[in-house]
UniProtKB/TrEMBL annotation:
<keyword id="KW-1015">Disulfide bond</keyword>
<feature type="compositionally biased region" description="Polar residues">
    <location>
        <begin position="1"/>
        <end position="12"/>
    </location>
</feature>
<dbReference type="Pfam" id="PF06747">
    <property type="entry name" value="CHCH"/>
</dbReference>
<comment type="similarity">
    <text>Belongs to the COX19 family.</text>
</comment>
<dbReference type="InterPro" id="IPR009069">
    <property type="entry name" value="Cys_alpha_HP_mot_SF"/>
</dbReference>
<dbReference type="GO" id="GO:0006878">
    <property type="term" value="P:intracellular copper ion homeostasis"/>
</dbReference>
<dbReference type="InterPro" id="IPR010625">
    <property type="entry name" value="CHCH"/>
</dbReference>
<dbReference type="InterPro" id="IPR051383">
    <property type="entry name" value="COX19"/>
</dbReference>
<feature type="region of interest" description="Disordered">
    <location>
        <begin position="1"/>
        <end position="23"/>
    </location>
</feature>
<protein>
    <recommendedName>
        <fullName>Cytochrome c oxidase assembly protein COX19</fullName>
    </recommendedName>
</protein>
<dbReference type="GO" id="GO:0033617">
    <property type="term" value="P:mitochondrial respiratory chain complex IV assembly"/>
</dbReference>
<feature type="domain" description="CHCH">
    <location>
        <begin position="30"/>
        <end position="64"/>
    </location>
</feature>
<keyword id="KW-0963">Cytoplasm</keyword>
<dbReference type="GO" id="GO:0005758">
    <property type="term" value="C:mitochondrial intermembrane space"/>
</dbReference>
<dbReference type="GO" id="GO:0005829">
    <property type="term" value="C:cytosol"/>
</dbReference>
Length: 92
């Protein structure tokens, strides 16, 4: 049985991943941020709203290391956490 390799018939055209999919962190570059986020979730009975700062830091790490596409933090739902700003009203 002979297998013919026909390299010239089709060329591979790479395309970017679909939105929402991104490379795994094979080298553990953001592992500490992930662990901090997961600990926060466990400590707070998996109420993710209580761990938004940790989530933001993890996503920032991934974007800085090109493990996901750069997105404005406002678009990711963290507009109120940028530069220490908070939309919550302080009580006097």
């Amino acid at each position: 049985m002979s297998t013919a390799m026909n390299f010239g018939s089709k060329s591979f055209q790479p395309r970017p991943p679909d939105k929402g999919s991104f490379p795994l962190d094979h080298f553990g570059e953001c592992k500490s941020f992930k662990e901090k986020f997961m600990k926060c979730l466990r400590d707070r009975n998996f109420e993710n709203a209580l761990c938004r700062n940790e989530s933001k830091e993890y996503l920032e790490c991934r974007m800085e290391r090109q493990l996901m596409a750069q997105e404005p933090l406002e678009k990711l739902g963290f507009g109120d956490l940028i530069d220490g700003k908070s939309k919550t009203k302080t009580q006097s």
